[in-house]
Specification:
alpha+beta, single chain, 9 strands, about 30% helix
């Protein structure tokens, strides 16, 4: 089995002006993603477009570990961008570009049954800044109460949580969905209303701008 899930993520968000859409998407899909997947430790990748939250475009790369970002091969790619990259990179044509590298904290190890699964048709990603005095309770509640409850909801395939080690804020949660309507279902809304995270931890945590965002996969293309 080819492993397509790792213990880390590289996540890149960007807004792009409409006049750059066509070439930006062509560059990403035809050159940039295939190039990155040739680097050691890059297992899989997909691109998404926001239906809720933002920034508008999201690229997610599954990494064996964050060490994949330090290999000579990857560093050479960064140091020697192609001509197309120099023109169409999110750092050039993007607005509000955010790049995060994150290492997985939950689950401690990926279920062997999901290691060969491709990138989800839809995602919900939350980026949270949690006060230090609330972190222990936050992590306990998320892993032992919120996540098990959400995984009971039809269409919620998987939940993974991360510490962000490049960029910020510190915490990132990625829900994998069968489709982007899962957060609009009665079951999801009922569970959200029953959730008592804030009462349990005794305080508040902050979301980054545009978080949580709901994203539909646009590359590789979906059949529905």
């Amino acid at each position: 089995m080819v492993e397509r899930k790792g213990a880390a993520l590289l996540v890149v968000y960007a807004d792009v002006d409409t006049e750059n859409d066509a070439e930006f998407n062509a560059w990403y899909n035809e050159e940039h993603v295939p190039e990155r997947l040739r680097a050691p430790g890059f297992l899989d990748a997909a691109r998404y477009e926001a239906l809720r939250g933002g920034p508008r475009y999201l690229a997610v790369y599954e990494l064996e570990s964050v060490a994949a970002l330090q290999t000579p091969e990857y560093r050479r790619m960064l140091a020697n961008p192609t001509e197309w990259t120099r023109r169409m990179s999110p750092n050039v044509v993007g607005r509000g570009t955010v790049r995060l590298a994150a290492t997985q904290i939950y689950p401690a190890e990926n279920d062997p049954n999901i290691l060969g699964r491709g990138m989800a048709p839809a995602l919900q990603i939350g980026r949270m800044d949690v006060p230090a005095d609330l972190e222990d309770k936050y992590n306990y509640y998320y892993d032992n109460v919120r996540t098990p409850a959400n995984l009971e909801i039809s269409g919620c395939l998987h939940v993974r949580r991360y510490h962000v080690v490049e960029g910020g804020p510190k915490y990132l949660t990625m829900y994998e969905f069968e489709h982007e309507k899962v957060p609009e279902t009665v079951a999801w809304e009922n569970q959200r209303k029953q959730d008592t995270m804030h009462e349990y931890i005794g305080g508040r945590y902050g979301h980054a701008a545009g978080s949580p965002g709901v994203y539909r996969r646009v590359f590789p293309p979906r059949a529905f």
